[in-house]
Amino acid sequence: MQGIYDAGAMFPVYFAIIALGVGFSSFINSRLVYRFEIRTLVTRVLMILGTLSLTEAALVASGLIEASLAGFIMMMTVSTFCLGLLFGNINALAMEPFGHMAGVASGVVGASTMLIGVLVGGVVGMSFDGTIVPLLLGFGLTSVTSLTLILFGIPKKIEKAPAV
Q1: What integer is the mean pLDDT of 75-84?
Q2: Averaged over 19-41, what is the pLDDT?
Q3: DSSP state at residue 7
Q4: 94-139, pLDDT tens digit by residue?
Q5: b/e map 44-79, b = 16+ CB within 10 Å
Q6: Domain span at 92
Q7: Rg of the chain on CA atoms, in Å
Q8: pLDDT confidence band for 1 (50 / 70 / 90)
Q9: Domain count across the chain
Q10: What is the rounded end-to-end Cα distance, in angstroms, of the chain?
Q11: Is residue 161 assigned to a domain?
Q12: Angstrom distance (rounded) from CA 7 to CA 60
């Protein structure tokens, strides 16, 4: 944001506005998990995030819309809202079959998440071209990849391992 929009002294304000997306998603998530199955919630949020990110990336890259500061803040607020809904729910979904060894599973999921995040974040960061397109593509492609893995890589009914 600082390098593209020269936010200057307003950077903390803009950052705080964007961070409201995560805070609001925590509140909303506490209601949604009672209404929807976690897998359904996660797949729908991934569909929304992927569609919005890839559509905006295509529009910005083609020059059909300009990536204004207000548009960027709005896009990032929606994206952080979606990410806030995803983080806890995807972790819960990943650890669901490992209730009997939740500590080990949590460590493996956390380490794997960090490694994947560093690798993907590095690629997105190295792709920076002075526009928001690489960021949007990063959100979109990781959403589509995650959605594909959840839909085709995880059985709909997970058999829980017996307690030891």
Answers
A1: 94
A2: 92
A3: -
A4: 888 887 888 898 899 999 999 999 999 999 999 999 899 999 999 9
A5: ebbebbbebbbebbeebbeeeeebeeeebbebbbbb
A6: 2-153
A7: 18
A8: low
A9: 1
A10: 50
A11: no
A12: 20
pTM over 0.90? The answer is: no
Report the C-alpha gap between 132 and 72 in whole angstroms: 8
Q: What pLDDT was estimated at residue 93?
A: 87
In a domain, residue 164? The reply is: no
52: Cα within 13 Å, side-chain hemisphere: 19
Higher pLDDT, 52 or 159: 52
Q: How many CB atoms lie within 10 A of CB 23?
A: 13
Q: Which residue has the tokens 């995650």?
A: 146
Structure tokens at 137: 């593509």
Inside any domain, residue 74: yes
Nearest alpha-carbon partner for 139 in 50, 72, 71, 57: 50
- Residues 6 or more apart in contact with residue 71 via CB below 8 angstroms: 65
- Residue 116 is assigned to a structural domain of this protein: yes
